[in-house]
Amino acid sequence: MSKYYLPTGMRYSTLEQRKQFYAHEFSLHKVIEWFEGGLGNIKFAVIIGRHTKIFPEKYKEDALTTIIIDDYKNLEDLREQILEFLPEAVYYDRNRYNSNNLKLGQELAFDLDPENMTCPIHGSLADKMKRQQGLSFCDVELDMVKREAIGLYNFLETRFSDLRVVYSGRGYHLHVFDTKASALTTKERLDLAQKAKQAGFHVDEWVTSGEYRLIRLPYSLNGLVSRITLPLKKDELESFNPIHDERCLPKFLGKEATF
């Protein structure tokens, strides 16, 4: 399979670059801030090389699978485990568990991806899939998905009060931290996703319904595009440009980032 086409300046990260990022740039302090100071019983996960086909040879058999990390002493230990796998993606489980590993609720989230946009140049997702380019996207789609994120934020603001938006490295994730949201049933979540779709947003129902409970960890590296997963304020969205914004550019890009 050929590589996915990506906007100018975005590219796959090598294993050495992943190692460099997680050893020296990955901010555990900011991760703690995201979880508001407490990890509790949060579970993490990695995918080593499903999309990039870049992986340590010793993990070849596990490169396409999702590996759950639920046995760690602290975040520094989590970093060490990530450095062992050198994954293309790091996630966390939106479920919240008690000390007996029983589910207490689930963080509500909405996922917007650029490849779901119908591009005037590259066509619909179905068109891209036919060309085996289902995760490809261009500058036009990147801007289109940002517009959707702004609109979806406005849509959700009429229903919830504690919202956060995250640039995922490709598209955008909208997280809802209202207490009432964590208790929503699968049906209620699916209803919300469908209402968002009816309003014109290309949300991933599988994510919003909770059937897929993993979501990309803020401040981790998206190895498909060499961008840092970055939380943003709503008023930053309009001017945000992930191709040039230094906050989401890993240091290993060096002079490449000044194109």
What would your notes on this structure say?
With 259 residues, the chain is of the alpha+beta class. The chain has one domain (15-234): DNA primase, PRIM domain (Alpha-Beta Complex). It has eight helices and twelve strands. The strands form four sheets. A four-stranded antiparallel β-sheet has the order 2-1-3-9, covered by helices on one side. The protein has a four-stranded antiparallel β-sheet with strand order 6-8-7-12. Strand 4 (95-97) and strand 5 (103-106) form a beta hairpin.
Layout of strands and helices, then pairs:
Elements: H1 15-24, H2 28-34, E1 44-47, E2 66-69, H3 75-85, E3 89-93, E4 95-97, E5 103-106, E6 108-112, H4 125-130, H5 139-157, E7 163-167, E8 172-176, H6 179-182, H7 186-198, H8 205-209, E9 214-216, E10 221-222, E11 227-228, E12 230-232
State the order of secondary-structure elements, H for helix, E for strand: HHEEHEEEEHHEEHHHEEEE
Number of domains: 1
The termini sit apart by 28 Å
CATH architecture: Alpha-Beta Complex
Looking at CATH, which topology would you report? DNA primase, PRIM domain
Mean pLDDT: 94
Shape: globular
User: What is the CATH C level class, in words?
Assistant: Alpha Beta
How many beta strands in the DSSP annotation? Answer: 12
Helix content: 25-40%
What Rg is obtained from the alpha carbons, in whole angstroms?
Answer: 18 Å
